[in-house]
Amino acid sequence: MAYSDLLVFQIAEILEADGVGTFATDIFISKEPDSPDNCITIYKTGGLPDNCLTVGNRSLEIHNFQVRVRNNNYLTAHTVMESVRSSIEKGIKTLVDSGGTNYFKIELNSLPIDLQRDKANRAIITANFTCMRSYS
To answer: What is the CATH number of the domain that holds 68?
Structure first.
């Protein structure tokens, strides 16, 4: 599994550890199921290309991911997205200290984006993030 694929699972772990949701119950990777109505899906995304830069004996990787929140209630969708953002910001501190993975920055690229409601009239909110990681 490529590192950037692993990243989305690590983000899911952060969200679950912070009580935002439960993996495979209401937090999903790469494919949003038709149910439950209220869920979070994490996607590896494009945008800036995944990069690997080398400086001296250290390498820097840059990866992108998107978090999508779907909810029956528009305001609740925004509240959940704020919980996601907050959890990721707190979770980076854990990831920095985790065995061998040195994340030093995960940043929100823009404010959450409201997408149109889906065919079941559920609100959809997305946010895009960039993750930077160094290793030697």
So the answer is: 3.30.2000.30
Q: How many domains does the chain have?
A: 1
Classified as helix, coil or strand, 110 is coil
Residue pair 81/113 in contact (Cβ under 8 Å)? The answer is no
Residue 51, token pair as written in the block: 């990069």
> H-helix or E-strand containing 61?
strand 58-71
Per-residue pLDDT of the chain (136 residues; tens, 9 = 90+): 444 457 899 899 999 999 999 999 999 999 999 999 999 999 998 655 556 777 677 677 788 899 999 999 999 999 999 999 999 988 776 665 455 557 778 889 989 999 989 999 999 999 999 888 776 5
H helices of the chain, in order, are 3-17, 74-97
pTM over 0.85: yes
Count of residues in the chain: 136
Structural domain including 72 reads: 3-135
